[in-house]
Amino acid sequence: MEGVAIIGAGQTRYGDFPGKGVKELFAEAYLEALKSVDHGLDPQTIQAAYIGCLSAGSGFQLGQLAPLLMGHVGLPHVNAVRVENACASGGFALYTAACAVASGKFDLVVAAGVEKMRDVSSSKGRYWLGVSGDTEYERLAGSTFAGIYALMAARYMHEYGLKREHLSMVAVKNHRNAVANPKAQFRREITLEQAMNGVPVAHPFNVWDCSPTTDGAAVVLLCNAKIARQFTSKPVYLKGFGAASDYLAIHDRNTVTSLAATRRAAAEAYKQAGIGPSDIDFAEVHDCFTIAEILAYGDLGFCEVGRAHYLLENGDTQLDGRLPVNASGGLKAKGHPIGATGCGMACEIFKQLRDEAMEPSRQIKNARYALSHNVGGSGGTAAVFIYQRGDES
Amino acid sequence: MTISVISYGIYIPFLRIKREEYISALGSCSAAFKEKAVMDIDEDTITMAVEAARDAVAGVDKSRIGVLALASTNFPYREKVAAGTVIEALGLSNNILTCQHGNSTLAGTEAILSAIGLLSLTDQKYALVVVADAPASGASVDMEHGFGAAACAFILAKDEPGLEFEGVYAYAAESMGIRYGLPGETDLRDIGVKTYSNLAYNDTVRASVRGLLDKLGRKPGDYRHVILHQYDAKDASGLAKKLGFGEEQINAGLVFAKLGDTGACSTLVGLCNVLDNASPGDNMIICSYGSGAGSHALSFKLTGQPPKPRNSLKSLLERKKYIGYVQYLKLKRNI
Amino acid sequence: MGAHISIPMYQRAVPQRYRLIGQRCLKCGRVNFPPKAVCKYCLTGSEFENVQLSGRGTIYSYTIIAGGGAPPEFAEDARCKGSYPVVLVELEEGPRIIAQLVNPPGEGISIGMPVEAVFRRIYEEEGVIRYGFKFRLV
Question: Least buried of A327, B7, B45, B112, by fewest C-beta within 10 Å?
């Protein structure tokens, strides 16, 4: 198997951009990624593109979105395909791209994600947010994704004594981290009191437990590790990548306080990288709802399942803690443009591991290994990546 | 061959509104109920029918049911075989004889009579009769104040002890009576001539009750209970007294005060109330009424122990939650 | 804009939705609900017999969907009730299933409460009422 390196990455700011559609958002991220390649890159040498997207601009381009976007940036003839696994679309685009390079088939590929969520009515938006669960049962129970994660949260609280304030601690931490991130959607702190008393969404969640709807795109340039240094002296290596699935419906799973897809994807990624959870210096995890970050701690091996709240209480996952999680602000505050999220995490880690975190206050120092974790829906799919900085030897 | 009710089930929606809510919202209330049942936003006459029928068929060999007779003045579809939903929900045979009665509050007893007739066309032993009703009209129509909701279901059996059907007498004649509904309109219309309406009710019901007593060679005093259609709080007991029944025969069948006008269910819910406390040997005469106008008087006698419902009307009346008038209007999709 | 469960698609699930028909795996004997082509327990059995589930179970977890956050096809319910509970029920035959809880108790819902299935309108699409099960406290 060939080694895989990231040699460039770019993303739009996440937020609400009435003036930009999927094409414009994608182009902005793509051009930034191209510019980030230290020694330059001839776009015409790109061999394939894997683009994660759920709704293709709320359904206007469900078919053949990827060639449309590539044509928009002057690469009409590239082997391009849209990858869809709901909120993990970007992660699965990155995973598919990494596999394509690792297989030796391609040397230079694009992994990307894009989502345009902010230009539809709230009714249509809620429609799209509910098409990725087990529609026939979960949706027809009148539930939403918030509702499904809320069922996990209520059970976690029941089984492990998690408290309402632990959920809010995730939101407070991630909002604080987003303040210094110029790419984040919400760059403002919130207090624990605020976070605990928001407008109810789905008990026990209030609005501060939920990630927003977001416009955004992220593009990552991957190459065969053998040629990485042609492009940069500071590549970031994808040392491990894993992906897995689970029953879509929450009622079909053995447990609801742990995501089997995450556990399996993580096991695959750790095995490939040859390291374990204790080697990880920082992580970007999928916190679409506050409980999701709490589940991730256990499923990624940062703690035992059921003990995540102690990490929060100890401040271990804060920016200055022993294992910073979601230094970017996470889905909660950086934003969650569904298809883009998985690749956006890779962008954040690419910057951090090259000591280019833009604002010095948010640079994680002396980090060697990082992990990103992207979940589809309520855990029907998950992708996990382990990154290693490449400027050491 | 005898035909007897061997099992029954009742369903009363959980939500209730008290008469005082009308008075505080509108200044008055045109109907003299104490409280009435209101369907939740996700209920209709078919969901009520299924709930009542599930109780009625519990303990009965469902594969021996050969007839399903449904009745309501307010089916959720204007055209559709409602039996299809009930058959699938209960897991009944897809090859049973079905009928569906509506268009007037006479529908409930029509369904019982149809079931009795259809039983002779099947080799199966049982017929299921389900009557679910919730008359509806606009919030601005005074008559609406009394409209309640309920469902009841009965298993009729060939040659088994139970509440044995003894006979029927019917009457129909041109008379607008109390109310009517026009095609395409969901709201019922009130005739609005109170004295005329009362008279029409009295004449129509009297004709069947007297006819049945004559036919069976009985007097009012021969019955333990009388249950007449109750579209308001007073007329049924007033007429029963005029017909020669005493209060002790009338009271157990009066349900308007607790449930309001339950349309095609009216006499049958009254019958269920009587059955809750009945003893072997008890007999009763019931008479339904439909504006337009018609009536059916039916005579029953308990030839064995009274069937015990899974949920008695008394227990269902105790399970409730009160709502306010604004919530009521929301549930009626008026706001 | 609704969930686009077509009328034929809805009809195919009528035995499950109207009267909770589960499937017992002829290989391992465990009960699947909703149905699968291959048993979700032994992951090998692909022959089943239908079983009538009792509709009884206990609340495994719950949430309360706030009015503003309901899917569009439940907007009317949400407007009327303000909010509505959704529960994950562990049925006494083993499988878990998600559905709404009707008549929520004033004192609040808690995990472990016994429930039974009721027949209700789920929602309406294309003018057709989609009936199915919900649960109520016993």
Answer: B7
Residue of C nearest to A154 (CA): C61
Q: Is the dihedral of CA B3, B9, B13, B18 positive or negative?
A: positive
Domains of chain B in sequence order: 3-162+308-331 (3.40.47.10), 163-302 (3.40.47.10)
C35 occurs within a structural domain: no
Query: Does the beta-carbon distance from C80 to B331 stay under 8 Å?
Result: yes
pTM for this entry: 0.94
In a domain, C67, yes or no: yes
C131 in a domain, yes or no? yes
CATH of residue C61's domain is 2.40.50
- pLDDT tens track for A59-106: 778 899 999 999 999 999 999 999 999 999 999 999 999 999 999 999
* Residue A87: active-site member: yes
3-state secondary structure of B10: strand
Q: Both tokens of residue B255?
A: 């349900």
Structural domains counted in chain C:
1
Is A288 labeled as catalytic in the residue annotation? no
Q: Find the DSSP H helices in C1-138.
A: 7-12, 14-19, 75-81
- Tokens 């072997």, located at residue: B280
Q: Is residue C123 part of a domain?
A: yes
- Token output for C96: 């878990």
CB contact under 8 A, A131 and C122: no
Domains of chain A: 4-121+212-389 (3.40.47.10)
**What token pair was written down for A320?**
């200055």
| Mutation site, C52, C80, C84, interface B, largest B CB count within 10 A | C80
ipTM of the modeled complex: 0.95
